[in-house]
Amino acid sequence: MVTPMKRGLASAPTERSPNSDLAHNTLVTGNLGVKGEAGPILYDRKLAARALSVCPRTIDSLVKDGDLRPVRIGRRVLFPFAELERFAASLAGGGL
Q1: Are 19 and 32 in contact (CB under 8 A)?
Q2: Domains of the chain, each with CATH number or no CATH
Q3: Which of 17, 39, 72, 91 could form a disulfide with 33 if both were Cys (CB 3.0 to 4.6 A apart)?
């Protein structure tokens, strides 16, 4: 719920975003978004970073080192959910 503040400004909503627990939902439970709904199968750099609990610059480094393989659609660089899962599973064997 949004509550009005002085001078007609509204405060930020206090409810959590359905994607606020994206990393936990995607990589631990396989749920890609809101319960009962399928989420994206391609993630941009920012969402891929959230899903792996790293910063976007780490995603850039992982791509540069060949540890994470993006797909390109036009000018967009996207990461398939299966690729994020593959990378996360590879960490169990040795880490970064």
Answers
A1: no
A2: 19-91 (1.10.10)
A3: 39
